[in-house]
Design a protein that fits this description.
The structure is a homodimer of 444-residue chains. Chain A is α/β, with parallel strands linked by helices and 444 residues long. The first copy, chain A, contains 17 helices and 13 strands. Chain A is elongated, with a radius of gyration of 27 Å.
Chain lengths: 444, 444
């Protein structure tokens, strides 16, 4: 599957705010707009890119060569010297590079679009014989200023009108298309009448009943035309990087707020997710050692460190998702180091309890509690592998055996200088959780 | 998918050895022959059974009613009063109960056949329009006495001859068929000529070029006609219940030999696999407590108990596979209790080392070693979930992190009264194993 990306325009409205570089090179959470468009399409299964450049084409071309090497992609740069006429002329410029019947994705370099929308376009497009398909937002934010947006009217599965000027409309054009080369004659017909915009060409397809749509169904997209749009895009991306259902209580109400804030900077700075994982792990190790000291200030510091590590533990995944750096290894590494980190913390706290009380009891209790930091996760993984589905995330039990809660309990414990009691409490919660998993596995 | 099972015969040759009950009710590793035939077909996806009875039909019918309730199956009992004429008459007896075009499996109640063979029959049969399909063993044991076996000659994908009397032949009839109702006119044609055997009917199909085959390709089957056959069947079933590739060194060379021997009795006695899991778990718990005693005899006993528990840990899965009692819960329960059992053992050994040396060092080392009993398995599960494939089982590392080896090291340690050193050694092996998994995950 190929994707055509239009990146020839000047971006006049955002220009005063972004300095000298062309608009597609504007950075947003660690990636340029065009980089994000390319990676989003790659995630949807696209392997080859045709990027149309015009304005500042030399800078664009050399940047695209860099992306090609960095991500090991195939990017063909297509120059459109008539780019000032309109974006339809840029779309037309790729026609010599596509086979007669070859479908392709058509994307705008200045729109951020969830990979899920592109996947849906491709899936629906495969059942299309001809014509084109547009992703349409039917549930747009009614508060939003839609003056500058391209609007559409629909009937059944077809578009019946498109344009910025529509006063009554059913949805917004997201700028993400699945096209057959039928697009090109339509663009030429529109150009003959003096309209060189993409919308002009699409209007021709609409007139022929050849223009279909899919709804975005809550998946995100954002047209980036102004400085405000850029901020909005950032907010949208940050709010879509984690799902509430997967999170424990502490994540949901505390950690995620902090980690999203941190992640936006970490992504901007280009910090690699695995480095965040390592940092979070090291903070826990330091915390574990600090717990062995008897002075309250060290204990408190240890508590703060592990709570901070717990927040950072969310950032690695968030930054990976924000910057398309998710990998099975990253996930594996994060999960396995978490378990080792927890054990070091439990050992540190147990050691300090033993110093205070001596005897074997602190060790036995502390070890059993520490094992509780591994077993719920272990039992859930075993369930997923045996039953070929994740263990149902239902009820309180699932929330009680999450790491965010355990580390928060230890944090509160260290604030109260009762970290050993907190360890035992967190361990007990976890073992009760495994019993809950046992009952739920028995039922399934 | 329906299966027709022929269970009308008298079984004259085995009769003197099995007492009064009809032959299909002969017990073999905890299941009767007919029970095994039914469960094997169920595992291949069959949901409805037609069982033809004749000899001692009352006993057979009431037994089949029992099986129907026990396994919640649909079993239609078909009486064939002409069973003494030959097994072809029994196959003919089901024809009123099948739709005109309905394919079915045709099985003998006195043949044990691997579910894999039945799955292959169904898969190949789905591409068949008409005619019948026989599973043929092309690599039979040439030492074996084949005088009583039904032999076949093949050409391409068809059978060209069938019969006990063939002097030159390519393979053996396993008694497992996939049939279309074309079988019935063939049986009638054979009966008209006075041959009421199933082989007679099949011969008619062979003559019409309507008889196809699939090879068994190493999957097991056994025709049970004599007391010796019954012993052979037992040996075959026991040798197919575990795969060498999955096993560690100690399992392969020691535990499996013992566990298979035990499993054959446990299956005979009808012991439930989960009960074996619980017993193995309790033995480990007792072992863990015995390790806390200082006298050598207790330590030795503890070592023997956990090595025995390690052998039993193989039996639950073996008995489950032998008696068609595998379940996701059983697997989950076995795996999770193993981890808890290991921790109790590690705690017991560590406690005893602390009694001898005091201080925190035994506890810290013992706990770290004990964690090593969980983490390799944890890391492998996480790999399987992240990469959607099992972590490659290659090389020494995979063998070094298996439970059979850890428990054997502890057993040897306790024989030498050096159980704490053994614990640390086994723990070190395991953590090195996790490092190996890290490297292998990094590469993938």
């Amino acid at each position: 599957m190929k994707a055509v990306i239009l990146a020839a325009g000047e971006g006049r409205r955002i220009k005063p705010h972004i300095g000298n570089a062309p608009k597609p090179l504007t950075k947003l959470l660690g990636l340029t707009l065009i980089e994000r468009a390319i990676l989003s399409a790659r995630e949807a299964g696209v392997t080859e890119f045709l990027v149309v450049v015009g304005y500042k084409k030399k800078i664009m071309t050399s940047y695209l060569r860099k992306l090609e090497r960095r991500y090991r992609l195939t990017i063909r740069v297509v120059e459109n010297n008539d780019w000032t006429l309109g974006n339809g002329s840029s779309a037309l410029a790729v026609s010599p590079y596509l086979k007669e019947d070859e479908p392709f994705l058509l994307l705008m370099s200045d729109h951020i679009v969830a990979p899920g929308i592109l996947k849906k376009l491709i899936a629906r497009g495969k059942r299309l014989r001809n014509g084109c398909l547009l992703a349409v937002d039917l549930n747009w934010d009614k508060e939003k200023d839609t003056e500058e947006a391209t609007k559409v009217r629909i009937e059944g599965e077809r578009l019946v009108a498109i344009g910025k000027e529509l006063s009554s409309f059913d949805g917004l054009d997201t700028g993400a298309f699945f096209c057959f080369p039928t697009l090109f004659p339509a663009l030429r017909a529109s150009a003959k009448e003096g309209d060189y915009t993409l919308t002009g060409g699409i209007r021709k397809l609409v007139e022929r009943g050849n223009m279909f749509f899919i709804p975005t169904e809550g998946l995100f997209w954002q047209d980036v035309d102004t400085k405000e749009d850029l901020k909005k895009a950032k907010r949208i991306l940050l709010s879509h990087i984690s799902s509430k259902d997967e999170d424990g209580f502490v994540s949901q109400y505390l950690n995620r707020r902090l980690s999203r804030f941190l992640s936006s900077y970490l992504a901007d700075w280009g910090i690699l997710p695995n480095l965040i994982t390592v940092t979070s792990f090291l903070l826990c190790i330091i915390g574990g050692f600090l717990f062995t000291r008897s002075s309250y200030s060290y204990i408190l510091l240890a508590g703060i460190l592990i709570q901070f590590a717990s927040v950072l533990d969310g950032c690695d995944g968030e930054v990976a998702r924000l910057t398309f750096k998710c990998s099975p290894f990253g996930g594996w590494f994060d999960t396995v180091t978490d378990r080792y980190a927890d054990i070091v913390i439990a050992l540190g706290i147990t050691y300090s309890a033993w110093q205070a009380a001596s005897g074997s009891v602190p060790w036995i209790l502390g070890t059993i509690a520490g094992i509780g930091f591994i077993m719920p996760s272990y039992a859930k993984k075993e369930f997923a592998l045996r039953y070929h589905k994740p263990q149902p995330n239902r009820g309180l039990i699932a929330k009680l055996i999450k790491r965010d809660l355990r580390l928060f309990v230890l944090f509160v414990g260290s604030v109260l200088n009762r970290q050993f009691e907190a360890l035992l409490f967190a361990g007990a919660l976890s073992h009760i959780g495994v019993m809950g998993l046992f009952i739920s596995a028995r039922k399934d």
